[in-house]
Amino acid sequence: MSSSPPLPSPAELLDQSNNVEQAEPGPSSVPPPLPPPPQPARTKLPTYNSIEYPGYISPNPTSVNRAIHTLGGQKEVSKSFAEGGKILELRLQPDNPFAHPVTGDVVGTNKLLVKVVVRRRKQVDRMDETEDGENEAGQSGDKGKGKEQGDGESEGTYSAEVMGLIPKTVRFRSMADFQYQPDEDDYVVQMRRAMDKLDVDAIRSFEFKPLQENYEEGGKSQLQLIPPPLFSRQGISQHYNLKQNPMSVIHSTIDPRTGEETRRYIHKHRIKGSLAPAAISWDSETVPTSPPQQILDARSQTKPHLLAKLKQLFEQRPVWSRIALINQFPALEGREIQNTKAHIGLVAYTFSDGAWRDTLLRFGYDPRKDPEARFYQRVYFRNTANEEARRKSIVGRRAGGTGDSGNTGPEVVEAPPDDRSSHIFDGRSLHSGAASFQLCDITDSLLVPLIKDEKSVRKEPDIADGWYTCHEFSLIKAVVRRKHFNLLQGKVIEDKDCADLFVPGGLTSSNTIVRPVGKKYLRKAKSNRRPVAPERLMAAELEIALRKGGEGGSNMGEDPARIGESEEEEGGDAMEED
């Protein structure tokens, strides 16, 4: 077994280190770094502007000058690029003032202007062409220029050189405007030409000639009108990508009189017929007594127990609003009736207009012949200002302590979303933002006497007011409108706050709109000629109390308008009647 060599002593190690320090440095074995490669010389390229001309331009200078002339001349072209213009007009008929130009947009681009030189040989014959092609191919290879070859034969030589940059370009992408050329012999057109030429004699001698009254149908108009400077502002065509509804199919019908076939797209479910209730207009002399045939054919889709309950409800009450009818059923059954439209179509019909519009009526029942049908009339108001969302935001701010907390009046009672009495209006509960109620479903203490007042019943029904007089029905709608929209604003108003509506002339647009209640009614509004006197408000409040109490005096049963007439004779500050 071999032994390891002895380790050097510390003295020997010190001698070796001293010898290394005293030794002179010699040449290094590491090669020095190479110098950087020479950079090619950089040249600043000039800039050019380009125009994508929508037409043919030959290399001949005359063609180029003519193209520049259609663009307005060199001055207009330079101006559009130098001054940052947005458009450049192209007039294909520069000498015709009635020809509308095509507009081009000046856009920024990052393009290069490249000069391409192509050298081609003369075509002498096939043999010479081949020999010349080989020689020229060799020469071009010696010169370092590119070449095009096809099927072994040289097609010519070309060279490319970058001349500069193109930062701006005019592009014509918009559609041309409609063109109209008036008669050149017309004296107005000649006057227009004279103004372009600054012909003073022609301008001074110009006179309007009498019009030629030519009323022949299809003939050219004799009105001396100059065409407008622009017919259409639509520059880019619209890509509609129109597609038919996937549920639409081509349905053909044949006219029984002429035998002509007509084809049109129709929804698949419309072919079988609509399942909506039968609808008639106010002018119809009779009312439906049975459902249409297409609804009878869909009876198999309905549930018998729901149909039986619907018929029972219509026997109890001949006219229902849709929401009132659905509220008579549990949630699941109500949803089933709404989804299967044949349920209602089998038991009721509707009016498309009139006082009972959009209500459901029992087959064979005509409300125009029954004065008791006035209780089933409907009042409806549109919530265009979205007062319900505004009221919720106000309530939220008040709950957070940042709103007005000075409202100490009665609070609005909000019904739950699944409430089955949303068709009832009591003046204090808010069910939804929509205001659609039948008069029989109104339980407000102020409105009930107005609805049941037999003195306001007509002898014949009206299309707008039904069996009520115009004044009485307008008064009912005004009270419902004020109370409902104040509920949307989070306020419950009392009966006395509607007293100004009972004053003669109170049924005006300024009084029926929603506004805060209180003493502001005594102020003179901008749209009112005179303020409502306090004594007249007291008289109106007395009239309200008498209607609610049913007791009478000398003037207790009189119409408020008559009371106002007597007061207007005594005093002079009454408002005009509506």
TrEMBL record:
Keyword field contains Transcription: yes
Keywords: DNA-binding, Nucleus, Transcription
GO MF entries: RNA polymerase III type 1 promoter sequence-specific DNA binding; RNA polymerase III type 2 promoter sequence-specific DNA binding
Residue span(s) of domain Transcription factor IIIC subunit 5 HTH: 225-382
Domain spans labelled Transcription factor IIIC subunit Tfc1/Sfc1 triple barrel: 50-181
Keyword ATP-binding tagged: no
A GO-annotated cellular component: transcription factor TFIIIC complex
Compartments where found: Nucleus
Chain positions covered by the region annotation Disordered: 1-59, 124-159, 397-418, 548-578
Record field: compositional bias (Acidic residues): 566-578
A GO BP annotation: transcription initiation at RNA polymerase III promoter
Main location: nucleus
Biased composition (Pro residues): 28-40
Protein name (Swiss-Prot/TrEMBL): Transcription factor tau subunit sfc1
Originating species: Rhizoctonia solani
